[in-house]
Automatic annotation (TrEMBL):
The reaction(s) this protein catalyses: hydrogencarbonate + H(+) = CO2 + H2O
Organism this protein belongs to: Halonotius aquaticus
Name under which the protein is recorded: carbonic anhydrase
Gene3D superfamilies named among the record's database cross-references: Carbonic anhydrase
Keyword Translocase (UniProt): no
Keyword field: Lyase, Metal-binding, Zinc
Pfam families given in the database record: Pro_CA
Sample GO molecular function, one term: carbonate dehydratase activity
Coiled-coil regions, chain positions: none
Amino acid sequence: MDEFVTGLLAANADHAAQFDSRFDAVQDGQAPSAVTVCCSDSRVLQDAMWENTEPGQLFSCGNIGNRVIQDTASGPAVSGDVLYPIAHTGTETAIVVGHTGCGAVTAAYEDLTNGLDEPAGIEHSLGLLKPHLAPGVERLPEDLSREAAINRLVEYNVDRQIEHLRHSDDVPDAVTTIGVVYDFQDQYDGKRGEVHVINIDGEIDVDALQAAHPEIDDRIERLWEY
């Protein structure tokens, strides 16, 4: 057995010893307070970023590009992974978590500007991002570095995912939609690993967001108000 996998199994044994009784309250069902849609990048610690150690508290989804959109026979729709807790467990908060230096956003940017040759599965995933990112690429200021351009598109992508949630007939109006960026590259003010709120229910104006949510005004920050 691979040594790393052996280590994972040992860590899981410790986890099981600590968590045994914590599953009692969720044996027969779940009612998570929020669904989070994170990028599956290995640097994005989906539960650890919230210090979440309680089973049943968060419904965590992950994919490259933190997408809420999937293709169906009848056209684009909110992914079933994201929609399930909203439709079946009473969850009324959806959080889209982008991150600095996102590889999926980078690949979509490169494909839109220079073209890429990716395996079919990756190309399909990028194809769900590119139509929504293309207008953002066109709006980028010309004097930006490649890194700065990509991190602005990270915000733009989060905004588009929030927009899709808000415009979907499958998502009730009562659901609060929040867009954030997880920063491990010192792009925002604050410590590495902090989450910065960039969008609440479609509002992206920092001043308006801070006025409406003074309790978290120091966590509201954007790189790009386009």
